[in-house]
Amino acid sequence: MPWRKYPWTQGTHGRCYKIGVGVNVRCDKDKIWRVYVNRGDQRKNRTMGAGREGLTSAIKAAEAIAEKLSGIPAQSALPPPNHCPDFTSYAKDWLEGGKIRWKEYTWERYEQLLRIHILPSPVFKDRAMDKIQRQEIKSMLTELGKTRSPATVEAAHSVIHSILYQAMDDGHVNSNPAGRLLRHILKSKNERDQKEADPFKKKERDRFLETAEKMCNRSEVMILKMMVHAGLRLGETLAMKEEGLDLERGSYHVTETFKRGSFSKPKTKKSRRIVDLPDFLVEDLRRHVVMLRRESLERGKGGDISLLFPDPATLLECPYSQKKIQGLMKKVCRKAKLKMRNPHDLRHTYATIMLMAHQSPAYVQRQMGHSSFQITVDVYGHWIPGEGRRQLDEALMPSEKTGREKGNHGVKRSG
């Protein structure tokens, strides 16, 4: 990275890099990088852009200006930096540069991990990159694992490892102290204590839906039904549109998910799938679509609809938020006097009921959109009834008893 070789000071809105005499690069209040030239009668600035790309462009432009003004290369005119950057400022640069590479949700997740769990720790706070020790990181993550889930520990390790790897790539550290550290903190991936699926039993499911129909509006009930009768994820359900619905074939084509106020592609290619719908759910959807068209006409929109589950609070322009449905789940469970569940447990309910009804695990995998058959077996394997259940007694019956029964029933005795 070209800016690593220049000394910097902390300005009002971010770092200020000194490239040459009277030539600086700094960030303005809008997080835009600019080149500032203040030498003799020249007082100018040039806008170069945001993020890492903007900073890289600004440094290169400033180098060219400094060389032109001094007659010698800018990097030769300055002494090499004599300090290693601290973890806090370096991590913020790393996070800022990720905005153009990561999805919005990923960026927000990394920012949250840094702000809440990583940067406040004395292991990292304002510490020079080359002073951070492997044992310190291990202790910090081990402590985090006492109060947080394995998934959070894994994500925090991933962020720390990525930042230190970039520091190693930039020449600030000789090795990555977080490398291959997670296996010494958590169990192997297949053995980690992940949150167990907590599906409804069939009677509990029916009581849950009966209660929902009494206290929720039509769209909210249909959202719950789509998860429990079709196995869709909450985001996939909220993103449902009429164009993906085939009522004649009884199917829905999943192509999008809705989360944090925006539509995006599902998590894997197999998540973009065609899901078969039971006939009774197709009829519910048919009536729901008719009512949506009627409401559209009443609002003067000519009966045209797109979203299947628009939030009335947004004048039918936007789906329900995930947070709203999560809150709704708690209210329905409380009213139905059922153990508290989250929306994803409705998807678990669908899978377990299908498997316990002897549906093929391969078919359930396709319906659920799992990226591999192994995921279906790992999560729901203990709900899959044995294929030989009907012949279980015959297979395990003691041989003496089996022979006696065959003698009584299978061979005609002579008089």
Could you characterize what this model shows?
A five-stranded antiparallel β-sheet has the order 1-2-3-4-5. A three-stranded antiparallel β-sheet has the order 6-7-10. It has 415 residues and is an alpha+beta fold. 27% of the residues are buried. It is globular and about 90 Å long. Mean pLDDT is 83; it is low at 74-82 and 409-415. The chain has helices at residues 51-70, 74-77, 87-97, 104-118, 134-147, 150-169, 202-215, 218-230, 234-238, 279-298, 322-335, 343-356, 361-368, 373-380, 392-396, 399-409, and strands spanning 8-10, 15-20, 23-27, 32-39, 42-50, 245-246, 251-253, 257-259, 262-264, 274-276. The protein folds into three domains: 2-77, no CATH class; 87-191, Tyrosine recombinase, N-terminal domain (DNA polymerase, domain 1, Orthogonal Bundle), CATH 1.10.150; 202-383, Orthogonal Bundle (hpI Integrase, Chain A), CATH 1.10.443.10. Pfam families: Phage_int_SAM_3, Phage_integrase. Residues 85-168 form the Core-binding (CB) domain. Residues 195-393 form the Tyr recombinase domain. InterPro entries: CB, DNA_brk_join_enz, Integrase-like_cat_sf, Integrase_catalytic, Integrase_recombinase_N, Integrase_SAM-like_N, Tyrosine_recombinase_XerCD.
